[in-house]
Design brief:
heterodimer; A: about 230 residues; 2 strands; B: 2 strands; about 0% strand
């Protein structure tokens, strides 16, 4: 038998390829495979949240508040619909860009640039959470509560605080881990593959990419929350 | 290729693709056995915890049976207690015993050994997974002791009654229950990611997915199901906690409770049922698929015959796993959902019978003309096949909307799901524990005691659940504390209930044989052969018995064949282990 086995055409070959020796995903490190599977699981969490939100929005008998009015912000004397949320979305998507660049420079083993890009990503993420806190404060001051709100269906406040809160928690954890990874990069743990800051395992630059997967996921989830909450 | 005609054996194992794993070898006793990062120790921790909490649930079920068999006899059971015991019995058995034991217990022990890995890929995460699970169990146990006691909402925890005053345990009990479930899910996710990545990315040389023992396939697919199904439970638990604690109205409609209008308004109780069963139905297969896999290996090994239709067995596991996500609403035929839903879900439910029946046929055909050795694990495996067919057939009744409607919420349902997802998996668990006991402890169990345990358990469960079918067909509703004089119930039904109770007590006591056997054999049992069943899979080929941390010797085994080379023509022995290359096979 030679090392390269000829694959049969069709389904059989596909199965043989997938079930092939030792690893189903060739060249994929364990941490990255784990992150993908975790994100798949997390996708189901957010899907359930969003489906639940749509479901209560359709079953409630009270009128749903108009998102263009609720989420409007006063600017230059006129209420601009979705102003804050547009800025927040722009910031989060920008942070995905800096994250992707951090991954690129990480693989190039460019320690300094990777570090700063990770820090910028973390700062953008933190400012997103800050603006979310601002938005929450504004809504709470207007009388929106998880159990009631002056504009209509009580489920509006409940679903809004629960889902954006859950997403905000994800972002916050992301920021914390971005900082940890940034420190690891800075210390050179990944260059020397030594066990370093807060772990006993050898560090590799692949961890930056694994971190990036999580960050892009949180970003992608936001797009759906944005669409279903603010545009519907 | 040698002259022996084996299934797919080749003399070649590809070179290693991944470097050796760094293992953290603990130096202290606490590091080795308490805060252990060794999957085998974690497996035993999971197993003992799950069995311990399972025994609590067993005692609860005996108390329930005492009340049903001999109503108005026991003063310590009042209606509130009774419904609390029903609830906790169900929840503990399904989630904290079966799920944890199959995935946390057998998954941890068998996956690394069977695929030829040193350990799980993330041992540290694996360790935390167990301790989080333990925390979930402790929170669950704590709920018995809060004011108002444990929740009495039924294991399905349907709102609005689950969190409405008047239901037992609607304050502290339900809060701790939901919290415990949330913690359990977090802990399970940590373990589950480990199992999946280990199977996908950390197999040894030559171990392709299509050479894996079916045990690993069953646990692998069940873990994926769990990772995708538990989110629905997590979300519903969070939402119900919010409803309870801060007064949101996700699941709570406007309603009057105890003569007062509640503050809730506009929620959807049906939404909870959908979310719950989107978890709940895959959960059935999270429990069943590992059982399917393990029983395939037990049957094959003890019948000395290759599993019939290996590839189809794999595909059936995958197909059942996929289909299990689109059948959930067959638990909700009486919930008042759109009738067209019922049509759709009845169809998908009956389609699941196809791959399931395929597996049953293949088990029977594996036994057909096999050289059957009636060891204790084999007895349990054959017992499983009988019980599973019984339970599966009543599933066909309940899967059809029109037949289900009159049977819904009767003892027929109890009989069905206990046969199919309680007794069947538990028989496999016993079989598997007896099967791997020599490997885990290095000693043999007492054969006589084990046989007594089997016959009492097997026949006893039939004495319990067969009569329940009749009760159900008579229309006797479930979850009732006492029935009193009701016109539609025949007079003899109470006698039947008493007989069931006696059988239940016998079965519960029979478990003492098991526990005694496990404990005493651990100290006094005779030393076991490293491969007492002459099995082919890698866990029986380890250098040490029981295997040490790191599982295998200095070099990982390479795999040259599938897991089922029994009775290969031309070979001297009737089995060839997976790590024997064709050129080394002894010729007859």
């Amino acid at each position: 038998m030679s090392e390269s086995v000829q694959l049969q055409p069709g389904l059989k070959g596909l199965v043989a390829d997938w079930s092939s020796d030792q690893r189903a995903f060739k060249g994929v490190p364990w941490g990255k495979a784990m992150m993908w599977i975790f994100l798949l699981s997390d996708t189901f969490v957010f899907s359930c949240f969003l489906v639940a939100y749509m479901s209560v929005r359709m079953t409630t008998m009270v009128e749903w508040p108009n998102p263009s009015e609720v989420f409007a912000l006063e600017a230059f004397g006129t209420p601009v619909p979705l102003l804050l949320i547009a800025i927040m979305t722009f910031i989060l998507i920008t942070s995905s860009g800096t994250m992707a660049m951090a991954v690129k420079f990480g693989y190039e083993k460019n320690r300094n640039v990777t570090f700063w890009l990770l820090i910028i990503t973390a700062l953008l993420g933190a400012s997103f959470v800050g603006m979310q806190a601002f938005e929450w404060t504004k809504l709470i001051q207007e009388g929106v509560r998880p159990w009631s709100n002056p504009m209509g269906a009580p489920q509006f406040g409940a679903a809004f605080f629960m889902i954006t809160g859950f997403h905000g928690t994800h972002v916050t954890f992301g920021v914390i881990f971005l900082i940890i990874i940034a420190i690891k990069v800075r210390r050179g743990d990944f260059d020397h593959e030594r066990p370093g800051f807060m772990t006993g395992r050898k560090g590799r630059y692949e961890m930056v990419e694994t971190m990036g997967l999580y960050w892009h996921f949180v970003d992608l989830v936001w797009v759906f929350i944005f669409a279903f909450f603010y545009l519907w | 290729m040698s002259e022996t005609t084996a299934h797919d054996a080749v003399d070649f194992a590809p070179p290693a693709e991944v470097g050796e794993m760094e293992l953290y070898h603990a130096k202290t006793w606490i590091g080795k056995y308490v805060w252990s990062q060794d999957a085998k120790v974690i497996a035993i921790q999971y197993g003992i915890t799950a069995i311990a909490i399972g025994l609590v649930a067993l005692v609860l079920s005996v108390i329930m049976r005492l009340q049903l068999g001999f109503p108005n006899t026991f003063s310590f059971i009042d209606p509130s207690n009774y419904i609390q015991f029903v609830t906790m019995h169900g929840m503990i058995m399904v989630v904290y015993l079966l799920t944890a034991l199959f995935l946390g217990g057998f998954g941890n022990y068998l996956i690394p050994l069977m695929v030829g890995a040193r350990d799980m890929v993330f041992p540290y995460l694996n360790m935390i997974s167990y301790w989080v699970y333990l925390a979930a169990v402790l929170i669950l146990v704590a709920s018995f002791f809060v004011p108002g006691g444990a929740t009495g909402a039924g294991w399905t925890l349907y709102p609005p009654q689950a969190i409405t005053e008047g239901t037992p345990g609607s304050d502290g009990g339900i809060i701790l229950m939901l919290l415990s479930l949330g913690v359990f899910i977090i802990g399970f996710t940590m373990g589950g990611l480990n199992y999946v990545v280990t199977v996908l990315q950390a197999r040894t040389r030559g171990m392709s997915l299509m050479r894996m023992p079916l045990t690993v396939w069953g646990i692998f697919v069940a873990t994926i199901l769990a990772l995708l199904a538990f989110p629905a439970l997590l979300v519903s638990a969070i939402m119900m906690l919010l409803d309870k604690l801060i007064g949101t109205s996700f699941f709570m409609p406007a309603m009057v409770s105890l003569g007062e209008q509640t503050a809730y308004d506009g929620g959807s109780p049906i939404l909870f049922q959908h979310l719950f069963w989107f978890f709940g139905h895959p959960e059935v297969y999270i429990v069943a698929l590992p059982a399917f896999g393990i029983v395939s290996d037990l049957l094959s090994t003890h019948a000395r015959k290759a599993i019939f239709g290996y590839r189809m067995m794999v595909w059936a596991i995958v197909a059942i796993g996929g289909l299990s996500f689109i059948v959930w609403a067959h638990h909700m035929y009486v919930s008042g959902m759109n009738p067209y839903f019922g049509f759709f879900f009845a169809t998908t439910t009956l389609i699941i019978a196809v791959p399931t029946a395929l597996k049953v046929y293949n088990w029977v055909l594996t036994l057909w003309r096999g050289n059957i050795r009636l060891n204790v694990p084999m007895l349990f495996a054959i017992g499983f096949v009988f019980t599973f067919i019984n339970g599966g057939l009543t599933g066909l009744f309940l899967g059809n909307v029109t037949v289900d409607l009159p049977l819904s919420d009767t003892y027929f349902v109890i009989a069905h799901f206990h046969m199919v997802m309680a007794v069947s998996p538990v028989l496999v668990i016993f079989g598997a524990i007896y099967h791997w006991y020599p490997k885990i402890t290095g000693r043999m169990y007492d054969d006589g005691l084990a046989k007594v345990h089997f016959w009492l358990t097997f026949l006893g469960t039939y004495a319990i659940y067969y009569p329940m079918h009749y009760l159900g067909l008579e229309g006797i509703p479930r979850r009732y504390f006492a029935y009193g004089d009701t016109a539609f119930m025949s007079e003899s039904s109470q006698d039947l209930n008493a007989a069931i109770t006696i059988a239940a007590i016998v079965v519960a006591l029979a478990q003492l044989f098991f526990i005694y056997n496990m404990i005493v054999s651990y100290f006094r049992g005779k030393k076991a052969d490293p491969n007492p069943w002459e099995a082919t899979t890698l866990e029986w080929q380890t250098a040490d018995n029981p295997p040490k941390h790191g599982n295998f010797g200095p070099e990982l085994p390479a795999v040259y064949r599938w897991a089922y080379d029994f009775g290969v023509p031309g070979a001297a022995d009737d089995y060839i282990p997976q790590n024997v290359p064709p050129k080394d096979v002894k010729k007859a």
